[in-house]
Each structure stands twice: as structure tokens, then as C-alpha cells.
Batch of 4 targets.
Target 1
Amino acid sequence: MTDIYANYIVHRLLDFLYITVYTKPSCLHRSHTRFKRLVRLLPSCDWAGSTLEGWTMMHAVLSSLWTLSTLESHASIAARFQTSESLIHQQLQEFCALVTANFSDKVHWPKWKDAEASVAGFSAAVGLPGTVCAVGYCLIPIERPMDVPDSEAYRVSERSYLVNLMAFCNHQGCFTYVSAKHPGNWHNSRVLLDTEVGRALQQDPVSLLRGKHIIGDSTFPLSEHLLTPFPDHGTLGEKKRRYNLKVQAALQVVRGSLHSLRCRFQRLKLLQMNSVAQTSLAVHTCCILYNMYLETNNAASLECMEEDFITQMPFHELPTGHSGSLGGISKRQDVAASLGRKPKKDGGLKHEQLQQLGKYW
């Protein structure tokens, strides 16, 4: 591949990933510089194509990013980069392993100042106090996985296998935790319990949340640490309806990020991998790159295909479900009651009201 063609691929790739959301040449130059920085930061090692004449780390990164960002066939990508399909596939695996090993800190749970910034951001944007993250999910199509004890657990139809991508986002839509290894037909409540965040919520929620909470939809169990909407049977009062609207606004943050992620990295709409472990690496790589993009750019509104979902029952309607913990029910009521409350002329809520809300944040 000539340097001129490689440079052309870089510019096409940056545009395709929507990294360049402006038309100014200076913005394109900055994007190109960030790409070169990514190449430099990846450690020098024995890549699969390192012994091939004219094939450099730049080519390895370019081919991997192109594979992740398009639905182009591996054969077509191999022809574009003048190499073999097997090398394209192997370079992608190595690229994902290197990115997740060297940039894992780009997806991290908010603590201290980061947590306070997220709480302030959600409060300002949607009006929900004490919210540190929102949780959502989407489904990633894969080939029949060969690295799990029961591949049929991932089957949802005759020829369709899915992985559940569960993601947590802060107020800016940055991914703070992602899990992509559970069967797509598992209920969200079950997936959550088998994640690091879910286990922390059970074992040590104070260290994880410091009195704050996560916002989730009705497929998650209501607790003092994870607030969900009020069940709506058409009889909700004004305060509960207002609360539900704000919950939906918070959930739109994580849904928007998942939507943008799959638009920018279109391979996630049809991940041609027969390994859950490799699928998880690829998804984490895309989330890391997405967060790196958000460090210097605001998320752009993208138009693309509708997301794939399997409709799930609300947690409280499951045979093993319940209406929520007593602490969760009480906290949700308190939050709903506090929304839209007009401040007193003396400068705020009454002392007793502040004490009540102070139990949670």
C-alpha cells in the first residue's frame, strides 16, 4: 500500500467515524494527529504482519479501524489493503487486545470529583438529584460461539446468536463500565447480577456509589442504589409522572451513546466472530475509542438503523421479581416528591426536608 493511499484511507476513516464533525481543515488536521498518536501509543510488538514487506503498524491499525467501522466484507477489506483475509482477521484480534490492554483506563467508574461532576451534570441536564450513572443495553449479533460450554444459550432464533451489551454512562455519555459476554436472551436483571457493578451493588454499594444512585429502566430491580420508573397503569399523579419523564431523559443519555457507538462502529451490528471472549474485546475496544473521541468532541447526533432489542418484562412482573426493596421504594418516593418543588423565600427547603434527602446524597 502506498503512503498516498494510506493517507487517503486515514482521511476517509476519520470522516466515516464522524471524528471530524466540522469542515475546517484545522479540525481534520487535529483528528489526523490524534490518529497518529494512537498508533504511537500502541507498543511495538510482533504483529502478525510485521514481517511483511511494506506492512507497518500504521497499516495494521488502519485495517482494524476500517473493519470495526464498516460492514464491508473481510474479503473486500483485504483487497482494499492488498493483503489476505486471514491477516485482516488476525490484525483485528491483536489490535483489540492491544487497545484494551493499554487504554483500559479510558472506561472507568466515576469516583470523587468525576462522580460529583456526573451528579451535577445529570441534575442540571435532566433534574434528577444524586444520579451518578445511567444503565442501558443493546444486542450484538455474533456467529455461533465456540468458546463457551453451551453455545445454544446464545441462540435466539434458528440462525441468530446474540450477546447482551450492558453499559453504564455518565452525564456526558461516556462509558463508565461495559459488559459484553452474556447471552442476548438473558433478562437484564440476571445480566446485572453477573457483572462487577452488580456484585458491588450487592456486596459494597457504599464504596461504589457513596450514597448516590444509578438510573435504570423497569427491567432492573428497584433498590436504594438503582432507581427505576414508577409502573404506569394510567393512574400516576403529577409528581410520579414528572419523575418518570426525568428518568426517561436520563436513560436517553446511555441509549444515545449506544446508538452512536453502533453507528460509528458498524461492525457491532454484525460482528463476524464465533468467540464470546473476542466479542467482548472488540466491544470494549469500540467503547474505549468512543470515549477517547468524546474527550475532545461532543457527541454528534447520528442517523442510522433502528437498534435491535428483545422486549423484556419489567422486573416486578417476573415470577421471581418483586416491587423493590423498602429502601428503594422509599427513596423513589422521596425523589419524586422533591422534583419541581419551589424553593422557599428563606433560601431553600425546610431543615427536615434536607435531612430526609440527605440520607441518600
Target 2
Amino acid sequence: MSPPPKSPESQVRPYTSPCSEVDNDQIAAVTSRPIPISNPQNLCPRDATPEDLEKLRHVADKIPRIAWLVAFTGAAQRFAFYGTTVPWPKFPPQSDVLPHAGKILALAARSRFHLSAADPSYQSFHYNRTVPWTAAFVHEIRRGLRSCRAVICFTVFYLCFNQSTTNIISQANQMEISGVSNDTVQSLNAIFYIIINPIIQNWLFPFLARRHIAFGPIARMTVSFFLLAVAMGYAAGTQALIYSRGPCFSYPRACEAATVVGVDGVTTEHRPNEVSMWVQAPFHLFLAVGEIFGFVALNEFEYIEAPTNMKALVKAFEQFTAALGAGLSMALGPVSKDPWLVTMNASLAGTMAISGVAFYAVFWRFDRYWHTNQNITNSDDSRVIVTEDSKE
């Protein structure tokens, strides 16, 4: 039994354009079968009406925010990739530095740590051996090791710097927080950094340069050592002030006098000693200035002194130094508690000051050569700090 015929209004007619500019015969020639469409008149081009424009204006409002977020994130990712890689030249791959550097250090270790023993001429004369590196590469290893000697001194620097994220936050918890959390005061470091860094870069350094006062990277790093020593000394003084105030004195929040009933009338809380948390603000000021002098000068020193093939290795060694500082911070865990915090902070301040004196006593010559030769470039298009090799 055949289905009942459809009404003329519901029948779908094959597509034939009613528009005069459309060739219906050409459409039939390129299509294998007619295109069914219910109302061909709507496909004719026409001018937009005010009602159409009003509807189009609100189309973007119907797009969910997650779609805009995905589109923006994708565009930002593409810009970050191509914007940072396309402008830079692509150098052909070179031989790996690590295997050759390891072999050179091994040869030096077997020769009482004399790098000259790894020189190709030395190996050829004494052992009749041909090595795959050049004398210039051995000299670069020597320069890289000189850079690492300065970087290793930052172990104590990182040890004291890490106190701002550990014991200093705990110290703030022992003080009256005045309506903010004890983590909030840590943001003062970033605030001071943002404010003081332009002052130092745009005013202090040009002022010293106009008066021909040498202030090289070693001097700046030494200043940062002493600033961190002052910061740790101030932290020790702040801790002594906390211990001198009630209600718990040397054991903040750990005595019966500090126990108070909570707002719900059931739970109990322990109030801190009667010292405002904002007393810590100068510590973060000294820390921020020390960070500006220390880390910026260290990066400059590494970039200038380390050879081109050794810059990444020296930077990686800096991260190893930071890891050593973090490990020492963990080792101080057993003594990082009341009532020994004053002694611990004072000891760190003294260690930092002694490290600053020793650092400058060992590396002060670098600044002299840096100031003299800062306009001289070597074959790697980098400035030379030291022009004479250390005697072996």
C-alpha cells in the first residue's frame, strides 16, 4: 500500500534558484541530483534589514565564555611560540659539550687538577694521543670553572634567602597580624622589589657612572651579601622582641595565658605575642634590595665570564647551588623552633657577613679587569673580565 500523497505545501521541491543571476542549468550539470530545499526564495541575495542587523549584534552574546577563553589561550600559546622562536636565528647543531668537558675534567683530575694536562699539545707530546677538542675549548672550561667558583659562594646566600618562605612566615604567625594573614606580609618583598629596582637601575647606577665610580658585579654581589646579613640580623632582633612580649614570651601561642575562647563559644584559639606583624617590613626591604644587587649581578657575571658553550652549564650549576641552599635549610629544621630562633637567625647573619668578606677577598680582581676591559670584546662577542689565566 502506497503512502498517502503529501500536500503541495509540504512537498520539498528540487532546487531551482529564482534569482536571475544564478544559472540553474549549470547547477544541474555539477550536481548528481537535485538539491531539495523548502523555500528557494530565501537564498536570493538581498540587503540586510534593520531587524537582521539587530539580531547580528547579539550573536556574540550567545557564545559561552569558555569558548572565548579557549580561543584567547590558543592565540596566546601560538604567539608565545612563534614570537619567541621565529625572530631568533637557527644555528646548526654542534657537538655536545658535556662529554668533552667531562673528559677534560677527568684528565685534569688525574694530573693533580691541572687543566693544562688536557691541552691537545700536552696529550700529543706526552701520550702521543689525539683529542677531539682544541686548546681554546680547554681555555673555555677554565673560564667556566672560574665562574662556578663565584656561583658556589651563593649557597649561603640561598640559605638565608629561603628563610623568607619558611621561618619568617612562621615568625609572622607569632605576631599580631592586624587583620591580614601571615602569608600576606611576604608580598612586601615583591612590592619593594618593584619600587626599588627602577630607582637603582635608572638613578643609582647612572649616578655612579657619571662620577666614574666602579661598581662591578663582584662589588654588587658583595653588597647583596651584607644586605642579607643585615636582614637576618634584623630578623634575629625581631624574634628577640617577640620573646620579650607576653603573653607567652619565649614560647608564642604555647601557654595557657594565650588560650582564648572562639567566637562560637566552643572552640579555643591561641593568640600571639603582643607585637605587630608590620615590624617585619624592614626585613623584606633589605631582602628585596639584596635580591636586586645579588641575583642581577650574578646573572651579569655568568653571562660575561662564562664562555658561549658553557653558559647553560654555569646557569645549571647556579640551580644546583640553590638546591644546596634548600638542603641546608632543611638541615636546620631541628633548631628552627622556639626558643632557639634568635640564635639561629643571628648565626645566619654572622655567616652571611663572613661569606661576604671572603667572597670579596677572593674575587675582587674580577671587578678591576671588568672595569678596565668592559669595552673590549673577545672572539665570542662577549666582554672579558679576566685577561690573565690563573697559574696552575
Target 3
Amino acid sequence: MRLTAGLITAAAMVLTLTPLAQADSIQLSVSSSFTASFDSPNDNFWGEYSTVKGLFDRPSLGPGYYPRASTTFSNISVFVPSGDFVTSATIHILLPTTTVHGTGVVVVKQALPPPDWNAPQIAPTFGINGWSDVHVDLDEESGILLPIINGDEVSTGNLNLYFDVMGFISDTVNTPGVNWDGYIGGSGSIVSPYTVQLDVTYSPVPEPSSIALLGTGLVGLAGFARRKFLS
């Protein structure tokens, strides 16, 4: 029983003295922007205007037609401490979570049968300083963004990013028109911010001294057990 108790005590001392590797992380964020120009593509996305009803639906950009913008983001890198190794690395593209505002122009596209066939048809006119309200999403054509790990350097590489733009184009009415129903289209542009975020987690490489310490402890155990046995 004295031999067993001695072994347990010595082993506990060795494990307590062995250092543990601690993980750490680095995060690098770089902000930039891109410009997107767009228009309502066809009658599925044109707005409607009616002089009789006073109806004004805005031209839209929606499912089935996503105007796209693209940009190239230049490489960024981080370095982990020398001798440490990378345990994980990810790239995130952060986009506005609220509406992005830009410029816009609304124009008459196509007349519909008028309320009164016997009366003149006068189309409405719109201002030249309209606006657009859109949401921006990362398009799947951007692909899976994988960091490049080269020794103690982690980088994004040059990224070809594609974005979808969805929303509405608006403008003021200069003259309401007379006896006119029809479609209105529009065009516009926005400048949207975005951020490329590189997250890296790394850990120290276990030092040989930890193994050496464990070996010394085992030798000590043998000597300790021998002394107890002979006494």
C-alpha cells in the first residue's frame, strides 16, 4: 500500500508542473466600398402609374432578376507568432444590415389602355433627382472563401466578390399627366460599404521540455518506489 500511495503522489506532482498550451486569436477587418448601377429590367419589375386612381407604384428590383455588382478585394494577411501553428482560419464578408440609399430616375415605359378612349392621353413626368433604396447581399458566385495558410502567415488572397442588389427606385412627380395609365421604369446607382474580416485562431506548439519533465518524473517514481520497497 505504501508503494501505491507513493506512485500516485509523484504522478500528481509531475502533471501539475507540465505547462498547458493556450490558444489565442487574431482578427483583421478592412473596410471598402463598391458601386452598383442598375435598372428595372422588364414589365415584371416596372411600377404602375394611374392618373385616374392617383396610383404610383415604384419600379422594383426583385426575385428573378438580381442586378449584380462585382469588385476585386486585394489580399490582406496576418502573421501568428513564430513557432505557433494555425488551428482555424475563416473569411467573412460583412454587408450593411439596413437599406442602402442611392440615386434614381423614374421614366415612362409603356402606356396601357386609357380610362377614356375619346380623351387625350398625357403621360406624367418625373423629376431628375430621384433616389433608390436597396438591400445588398453576397452572391453565391463569389464562391467559398478559403484563407491561404503558409507557415505563420494567413492571407485572404485577391477576392473576386459579387453582390446582388434588390429594392426600389423612386422619384418625384413633376406633372401628374391626364387620362394615362401605364408602366414606369427606372434606373439608379448606389455606393455600398462592405468589410472583409479575417479570423485566425492559433496555439503554441507543445515544447519538448514538457516531455522531458514527464520523463524525469517517471525516473523519480522508479527511485521513490525502490526506496519504499527496500525500507
Target 4
Amino acid sequence: MTTLVDIAVRIFFQQAADLLFTYQAGSARTQMIRVVHMAE
């Protein structure tokens, strides 16, 4: 049986995982840009 708490926790972790993924993708992109600028 799924309670409201279970749903809330699941949504919270989903949001946290999305944020973490977005942050990692963003920092990876900034590192790539930095490397490109160094190469020029």
C-alpha cells in the first residue's frame, strides 16, 4: 500500500536526482568550454 509519505519521498528523490544530473551536466559543459578557451 502506497502512502502519501512514500509518494512525497519518491518525488523528492526524483527532484534531487534531476537537480544533481543537471548540475553535473552543467559543470561538465563549463569544463569543456574552459578547455576550448585554453586551447585557443
